[in-house]
């Protein structure tokens, strides 16, 4: 199992969007009515997640920072220059596309009254049932038409999905996993305060039935491993835990 702890707001946003994109891509391949319902709910959650005025500027800044840092690698002798140049061109294209689009991401969907009506009812318990939204009931049971329409709506996020993918891919590849031990279920590591880490990654075998709680300060990283217990309060394991750790930054 992989566990990740974001260390700034931009990476938190990327991980939330990746989570929603993964759901949407899964439900797009399904055919049942409830799959279509869940797909539409996910599209609206994406729309709500990116409803902030500075999101395009923040992504431009992050991509620009990554491009600057990656360009410094060109001087290193063992760098794959072709792969590096391809990545830099992809980043430049995404930045140009963000600048070229004068509207907010997904603005067309925000102006869709049908979607707005559903979104207003979606988080009320059973708010989209037949007597509340008969128009939605009629639409969603037209499976082929509904699925084609949702695919068209989801395509509004294709560029955003590319941005999230490249940011997280480069960040995850920036650091390799190292073997670490948590004695009595606890590990503490020192951090260099001059390095701005962006993501903590932990890999631990699913068979251990353990999950980590991660606490990060300027100077230290603390990790506690807990036994999974769905019937009560989770307790820290008294056992030593072998796991893998990566502290990522670009």
Quaternary arrangement of the chains shown?
single chain
**Strand order within the widest beta sheet:** 1-4-7-2
| Count of extended strands | 7
Separation of the first and last Cα atoms: 24 Å
Strand content: 15-25%
Low-confidence stretches are: none
Mind summarizing the main beta sheet? 4 strands, antiparallel
Name the structural class.
alpha+beta
From the spread of the alpha carbons, the general shape counts as globular
Overall mean pLDDT stands at 92
The SSE string, one letter per element, is EHHHHHHHHHEEEEEE
Describe the structure.
Helices cover 48% and strands 17% of the residues. By secondary structure, it is α+β, with helices and mostly antiparallel strands. The strands form two sheets. The chain has a four-stranded antiparallel beta sheet with strand order 1-4-7-2. It has a three-stranded antiparallel beta sheet with strand order 3-6-5, with no helix packed on it. β5 and β6 (220-227) form a beta hairpin. The longest helix has 20 residues, at 81-100. The two termini are 24 Å apart. The model has no long low-confidence stretch (mean pLDDT 92).
In short:
The protein is α+β, with helices and mostly antiparallel strands and 250 residues long. 48% of the residues lie in helices and 17% in strands.
Provide the descriptors you would attach to this structure in a database record:
250 residues, alpha+beta, four-stranded antiparallel β-sheet, three-stranded antiparallel β-sheet, 9 helices, 48% helix, globular
